[in-house]
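Worked Example 4.2. Read the sequence first, then its structure tokens.
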Amino acid sequence: MLHKLAWLGLPLFALVSFAAENSTDHLIQEALKSSPLENNLRRLTDEIGGRVPGTPAMQRAVDWGVAAFKEKRAPHFTGQWP
């Protein structure tokens, strides 16, 4: 009986190992893709500029951030924390 279970477990182990390897490869490939981070940082620093609280530049930064989140359909919150 144990011998039969070992033979059943071997293909399952190979399948799990293959899936894990593919997940790792996929994760690495995603990490190596270009990111919008550099462009976002450039826009915030060069186009919007300093963001002193209560200034129009701060409001532009908030508006830009909210628009970016909405474009990606990501959850977002603006306002006072409870």
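Now turn to a second chain, presented in exactly the same format:
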Amino acid sequence: MKEDNKKIQLLKEELWSRRTTAEITMIGRKKTAEECNVIKEIQKNSTREKEVVQALEKQDGLTWEEDGVVYMKGRIYIPNNKRIREEILKENHDSVDVGHLGQHRMLGLLKRTYWLPGLKEDVKKYAQ
């Protein structure tokens, strides 16, 4: 009986909480029609930056793919696709419930949910 758990490998607590947080974020958020369309576009897109491919290959629990969506550090990875990026920027800057945010507040809002290389520069250009 003493060796019941000998061959069982447990997840590190921080990995479990990060993944659970990402899943809860997606389920708990009120999704708009635009957001659902963005997720569908992400699922169709197979292009990924080298950094993302390498992170997926590590299989460290910080990056994973689920239903065609890659999660980087608990946030949704946005591929280098101009149309998808513009839609996300528009949705988070021009929507009625968000209002017109400055670039710093908009960047903070986007970083809660999304992970994309060059986000700061994209937000700066869009907010101007």
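Notes for the reader: Residues 13-127 form a domain with the Endonuclease III; domain 1 fold (CATH 1.10.340). The beta strands are 63-66, 69-72, 75-77, 114-115.
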